[in-house]
Design goal:
Elements: E1 2-5, H1 11-24, H2 39-51, E2 55-62, E3 65-74, E4 83-90, H3 99-113, E5 118-124, H4 128-136, E6 140-151, E7 154-164
Parallel strand pairs: 4-5
Antiparallel strand pairs: 1-2, 2-3, 3-4, 5-7, 6-7
């Protein structure tokens, strides 16, 4: 398995990955069936990401297939320049194989390289494996957004978590 920055030529595979991963979990903010970017649109998005040194898009590749993804967006505002938020996803067939850990470790390295000191995230309260992963890397719960996430007819709490990088 290889972890690397996304490339423009990954656009078709990235679209396929996003469509698949959205159908495999309810814990992502996008809803299954709503991803509709064309390959050309995705190429344009990736091109913009690659020239923005405050945005990181990492992919996990196995046998030339994207099996995981981490995006990290660092705040461009002067007073919050040290802050970034991120999202992570892995294909269900690759759960519990260290893919998310490898992506997160590389994401933290990339964050340090662009002078990020605080990485933030939101996670659904019931997503115990994700919470355990974040805690393994030193993330700390700092708050709750009650009934902030709607899944299958029910409201769920979101935990705010952060990691301080020394």
């Amino acid at each position: 398995m290889e972890i690397r920055k996304i490339k423009v030529e990954d656009a078709l595979q990235y679209n396929n990955y996003l469509q698949s991963v959205l159908s495999e979990t309810d814990y992502l903010t996008s809803v299954r069936g709503t991803f509709r970017s064309t390959v050309d649109q995705t190429k344009e998005i990736i091109e913009k990401q690659l020239i923005n040194n405050r945005y990181i898009n990492l992919v996990a590749i196995n046998d030339q297939e994207i099996i995981g993804n981490l995006t990290l967006s660092a705040n461009p505002k002067q007073k919050e320049y040290h802050v970034a938020s991120f999202g992570i996803s892995v294909r269900k067939a690759y759960y519990q194989q260290g893919i998310a850990s490898a992506l997160l470790a590389r994401g933290i390295e990339e964050a340090r390289a662009i002078q990020v000191k605080r990485i933030e995230l939101e996670v659904v309260e019931e997503n115990i494996p994700a919470i355990q992963l974040y805690q393994k890397f030193g993330f700390i719960k700092e708050g709750v957004r009650n009934k902030a996430f709607y899944i299958n007819g029910k409201y769920h709490n979101l935990f705010y978590m952060y990691l301080w990088l020394d």
